[in-house]
Design brief:
CATH topology of the largest domain: inorganic pyrophosphatase (n-terminal core)
Radius of gyration: 19 Å
CATH architecture of the largest domain: Alpha-Beta Complex
Order of helices and strands: HEHEEHEEHHHHHEEHHEEHEEH
Distance between the termini: 32 Å
Oligomer: single chain
CATH class of the largest domain: Alpha Beta
């Protein structure tokens, strides 16, 4: 860690330790495993220390079924009950304040706002910004914070941190997988984690209906060898016909990125409001974070995304021009 990250962590510890009021925790809209796992880890750890905290995320307040193995899901609070002006608020895996959705006003009104994240594109919207682009997951940052707070790990906390770690490293396959990642995984695994069950629910188990959707989507996948680019589009019509949700298709990008002929993989997912949620992955030298940032999004060099209000063809044109 750099001195600035150490300093920011120390400030975060001071703010948490000096607060005697309820601490408000929030992750980004439609949370993934890192956002949900890191938030729940700190939520449970604080509660076990007798500290009051509340954890939530914006509508749609629905946890995707494949995250059912995380601990403390029943301790989440609906966003309608989230404090409007929290004395101390902490965000997890939130790259920019708008990613908080309906909880954005609470963040804007918070007396102290701690931002915990690992995205290089983070806009540093907090009063204390603990941003470590070298961390494999926001869960790694939370583990450091717990250590500095002197809060010991428990099995439930370890389950959530492990889920955060394996989700953002793709089960230790991505470029972010370092010796430090394996060291943390070893520490967490010592708590007798349900590793096979977590791996299956998070990555391998799907409804039969989703497999049908995946088959149709892959059959329409397009390879553009001259640009080393592969993409596919998921429409609301496809989702409706297969009785699937966008949450279920979260891992589809990891299938698309397997195309040997392509350096950059892309999925364009149509939202209910007609906007296009774009997921980008790079397996080479292309920096997809640069493309995402240029279009109002963010992420990492090898994994990024943004929301487009253009149609699919126009959105693809923007991406092609940036490759």
């Amino acid at each position: 860690m750099t001195d600035s990250i150490e300093t920011s962590l120390a400030l975060a510890v001071q703010a948490i330790e000096s607060s005697d009021e309820e601490i408000a925790l929030a992750c980004h809209i439609t949370p993934d495993g890192d956002a949900l796992g890191s938030m729940l880890a700190l939520h449970l750890a604080l509660n076990l220390q007798g500290r009051k905290s509340i954890a939530s995320f914006s509508e749609p307040f629905v946890v995707a079924d494949h995250y059912r193995g995380l601990s403390g899901l029943d301790a989440l609070t609906p966003p309608s009950d989230y404090p409007a002006e929290p004395p101390l608020m902490i965000t997890f895996d939130v790259g920019s304040i708008d990613r908080l959705g309906g909880l954005t006003p609470s963040a804007e009104s918070a007396r102290e706002l701690i931002v915990l994240d690992h995205h290089v594109s983070n806009t540093r919207f907090g009063t204390i910004n603990v941003i470590d682009p070298n961390a494999a997951a926001t869960g790694v940052v939370v583990r450091r914070l717990l250590s500095m707070l002197g809060i010991p790990l428990t099995r439930d906390v370890a389950i959530n941190l492990y889920a955060a770690l394996i989700c953002d490293t793709g089960r230790f396959q991505y470029e972010s997988t370092t010796p430090d990642v394996f060291e943390l995984a070893s520490e967490l695994a010592a708590f007798d984690l349900p590793i096979p069950e977590l791996s299956r629910s998070l990555f391998e188990e799907h409804r039969f209906a989703y497999l049908g959707l995946m088959g149709e989507a892959i059959s329409k996948m397009v390879l553009e060898p001259e640009s080393s680019f592969v993409w596919l589009s998921l429409t609301q019509d496809m989702l409706s016909r297969h009785d699937c949700t966008l949450d279920e298709a979260e891992g589809l990008i990891d299938i698309v990125r397997r195309a040997r002929e392509a350096e950059v993989a892309c999925i364009l997912k149509e939202e209910v409001d007609g906007s296009i949620k774009v997921s980008l992955r790079s397996v080479g030298t292309a920096d997809v974070c640069r493309i995402a940032q240029a279009n109002g999004g963010g992420g990492h060099r090898f994994a990024a995304g943004f929301t487009s209000h253009l149609d699919v063809d126009a959105t693809l044109g923007v991406i092609r021009a940036a490759l």
